[in-house]
Amino acid sequence: MAFLKLYCRNRSAVLGLVILVSVLVLAATASIFFPDDPFRLAGKPMSPPGENGYLLGSDTLGRDVAAGIAHGARTSLLIGGLATAVAVLLGVVLGGFAGYFGGWIDDLLMRVTEMFQTIPSFIFAILIVAIMKPSINSIVIAIAVVSWPAVARLVRGEFMSMRNREFVQACHIVGMSDWRIMLREILPNCLSPIIVAGSLMVATAILIESGLSFLGLGDPNIISWGFQIGAGRTVLRSAWWVCTFPGVAILLTVLAINLVGEGLNDALNPRLRNRT
Amino acid sequence: MSSEMPTPALLDIRNLHVSLPASAERPYAVESVDYTLGRNEILCLVGESGSGKSITARAVMGLLPAPHVAVSAGQILFNGEDLTTAEPSRMREIRGGEISMIFQEPMTALNPVMTIGKQIDEVIRFHAKLSRRQRRTRAMELIDSVHLPDPARIIKAYPHELSGGQRQRAMIAMALAMEPKILIADEPTTALDVTTQAQILKLIKELQRDHDTGVLFITHDFGVVADIADRVAVMQQGEIVEIGSANEVLNHPTHSYTQRLISAVPSLQPRAARELSTNVELDVRDLRKTYRSGGGWFGLGGAEKIVRAADNVSATLHHGETLGIVGESGSGKSTLARCIVRLIDAEAGEIIYKGTDLRPLDRAQMRPYRSKIQMVFQDPFASLNPRSKVGRIIADGPVILGAKASDAEKRAREMLELVGLDAQAFNRYPHEFSGGQRQRIGIARALALDPEILVADEPVSALDVSIQAQVLQLLADIRERLQLSMIFITHDLRVAAQVCDRISVMRLGQVVEQGPTAELFANAAHPYTRELINAVPGRDWIPDARPPND
User: Cα(A37)–Cα(A222) distance, rounded to whole angstroms?
Assistant: First the structure.
């Protein structure tokens, strides 16, 4: 309860949470309001919003833009969440090991991390998806692979600063095992920055997924916002609505997640707690 | 001294109130405080942490963290001018020009990316119209006046290139650049070693006399007060409870709080020697630990730095005794403690406990011995996991050694009682406790494993003097009751005199002298030991103000 109160002090974070919950509800109810396959050719192509029974218009092939957005929300959130979970898991494990043990383990893991960081992340993601076949799995893997180094760096720093704290030394002295120290003593003390970084990473993941779909590297059987924008870009001047509404959806979702992340940061970071 | 002459006060603080935000424990940080500071006088403000002594000084400088903390009533008259209502531009002129301040931690008070010369130059440039050359000459004079060697080199040095004492001297040079009428010193020697502290105190006194400065000296250490003060004001909970000449307050205190504080100051007179067993509990022989840094891969990067933190250290701990390891920072005393409890691995030597050399043992082999040697840490705030409940912190040790959860819990409750804490503490988090209580929790954690040897690394140096006395008493009781042998690491010779049966003096990784406490204090053989003993603040002051009913 105290946490909720702290969180609600930040107005824009509350706004972000409201938008995010709306997107979640939209994704959850997509099959109720738009029971048909979003790829189905529903009627007259290029209908402007509000005409021919299309709330947000139809695209060049007569697919319902509104249905696409609702179903696309599922894809975006699913991929964003999944990819982030994989990246955070990988990053926490590798960063934790590097920070806790230090020495040659740290050197080795950090050189590997740096190797990943030197390649521009979006191009790297394209490369991975192009090598594997475009599918949900390959996209999740690609996004996770380009995202984990940041988490690993963060967790390594946290573990390094914790490892020499006296309370950790006290655990060594009673003979606690390394696993137990890492999981039960250090990790709970680094959770706040990890949660904040993770929440912001969901937004980045959604953007990467949209970018990949836009370039035609998305899963061909699943509708997504990026795919919709890609499909509408040739008719941007004659049928503005095909690109605009999915674009607004991406904008709002990413903005909402960023606001939530910032709100979590304010609420979880004790140094910012007294900020007015 | 000057306090006897009725000269008009340089600084006259009348009925000062500083308010705290509504969420704080008390409404005022400082409440109806009155005091005066004359020319050529050193007034010491003494008090424990949270007594409001720093806040009064900051109020004078106009450095309160407004708007949360602000002067809400009263006057601060500086030569008759009320500083509480002064314009910001006037305050800027006064700060650094007429009133200046030195801080506890010179490393953070100096800008790390500017040379010392530049930082002194800035002060002069802001307050006076002088040419570049004149300013440089003045800066050189200042550096020379605080007895820093080779001013031409110091002026070009960055703060990290100087030692702690040199940095504090540089800070003093900066503070004195404009010949201020008042110097406010906020715990200026607390972060320094005792020998450096003695030099800095001497320097402040000398400069104050030469320049007729009024010094407002804030400290928690009665020894320092005895060395430096003309007058003393004792603060408690934001109020001044007693103010008077140094002799009155230190030797004939009237307020019960002052009496309590002074009686809590450990005496330098070693306590009577005890009968000791000659059974050796732990024998450390020729222990060696070297730290290397720099170098980089394949010898690229800077030159390798080698620090011998423990250089062939030997020490013997007898059954039931307290062995003190005394030394200044960097002497290797903490390294020695951490080698003994096997937190760090020494490269060579022997740590013999009941016939077994513990040094070469690996983690699994060490496990059966873990419970026998336990440690109490220095910082009561860092040594407890903020996310764990107190009960779990204490019970974890027995659980790891294979006790059943219910037994471990019972043991933890017993330990809490043993160290004088309420049983309710079991389900609370560390942040709900004060520093002294946390240190008790740390002791309970160490005792939960039923150890035979307790290694205490500066266990009281982060605590206020009255709490310090209680924790020392607790440690002494426990040692008696549980027949523990103790290795007690401290930089404070007063504490060592009261706690230790024998003392080893360490310097630069080596034991320079060891012997029974009384003998060591009476006739130290090594010049460094003598230097340490002579540097103890307030050495000549023997507190005899025990409350009558104690």
Answer: 10
First to last CA, chain A: 20
Please give the pLDDT value at position B299.
59
Cβ contact B317:B487 at 8 Å: yes
CB distance B385–A185 less than 8 Å? Answer: yes
Phi-psi category of A237—alpha, beta or left, where left has phi over 0 and alpha has psi -120 to 50? alpha
Q: Does residue B196 or residue B301 have the better pLDDT?
A: B196
Topology of domain A75-250, per CATH? MetI-like fold (1.10.3720)
Token duo for residue B215: 């010094």
What residue in A sits closest to B388 (Cα-Cα)? Answer: A185
Provide the angle, in degrees to the nearest 10, between the axes of the packed helices A11-28 and A65-101: 120
CB atoms A166 and B343 under 8 Å: no
DSSP assignment of B357-391 equals: E-TT--HHHHHHHHTTEEEE-S-TTTSS-TTS-HH
For A50, the token pair is 């509000």
Q: How far is CA B367 from the centre of its chain?
A: 34
Inter-chain contact B371–A188, Cβ cutoff 8 Å? no
Chain A's closest residue to B451, CA to CA, is: A174
And the tokens for B121? 């130059």
Buried b / exposed e over A231-264, threshold 16 CB at 10 Å, is bbeebeeebebbbbbbbebbeebbbbbbbbbbbb
Q: Is the peptide bond before B67 cis (omega within 30 degrees of 0)?
A: yes
Fill in the amino acid letter for A272. L
Q: Where are the domains of chain A?
A: 75-250
Structure tokens belonging to residue B116? 């010392």
Give the model confidence (pLDDT) of A108-151 as tens digits. 999 999 999 999 999 999 999 999 988 889 999 999 999 999 99
Say whether A52 sits in a helix, a strand or coil.
Answer: coil
Residues of chain B with C-beta less than 8 angstroms from the C-beta of A187: none
Instruction: Name the residue among A198, A245, A256, A255 with its Cα closest to residue A72.
Output: A245
Q: Report CB contact under 8 Å: A174, B442.
A: no
**Phi, psi dihedrals of residue A26, rounded to the nearest 5°:** -60, -45
Distance from CA of A254 to the nearest CA of B (A): 32
Q: Give the gap in angstroms from C-alpha B67 to the nearest C-alpha of chain A.
A: 12
pLDDT in tens, A37-94: 888 777 788 788 877 777 888 888 888 888 889 999 988 889 999 999 999 999 999 9
B13 DSSP β-pair partners: B35, B76
User: Taking the mean position of all CA atoms in its chain, how far away is CA B36?
Assistant: 28
Classify B59 in phi/psi space as left (phi over 0), alpha (psi -120 to 50) or beta.
alpha
- Tell me, what's the ipTM? 0.79
d(CA B360, CA B350): 8
Contacts B338 to A, Cβ<8 Å: 169
Structure confidence at residue A7 (pLDDT): 83
Give the Cα separation of B427 and B408 in Å (integer).
14
Q: Using CA atoms, how far apart are residues B220 and B328, in angstroms rounded to an integer?
A: 19
CA distances from A252 to A73, A195, A207, A256, B376 (A): 11, 21, 12, 6, 53
Q: Residue B453: helix, strand or coil by DSSP?
A: strand
The answer to whether the Cβ–Cβ distance between B371 and A174 falls below 8 Å is yes
Contact residues on chain B for A165, CB-CB shorter than 8 A:
382-383
CA distance B166 to chain A (A): 29
A194: left (phi over 0), alpha (psi -120 to 50) or beta: alpha
B370 vs A173: CB contact, 8 Å cut-off? yes
Q: What residues in B contact A174, CB-CB < 8 Å? A: 370-371, 374, 396-397, 400-401, 445, 449
Question: Do B264 and B469 form a contact (C-beta atoms < 8 A)?
Answer: yes
R_g over Cα of chain B: 26
- Whether the CB-CB separation of B197 and B164 falls below 8 Å is answered with no
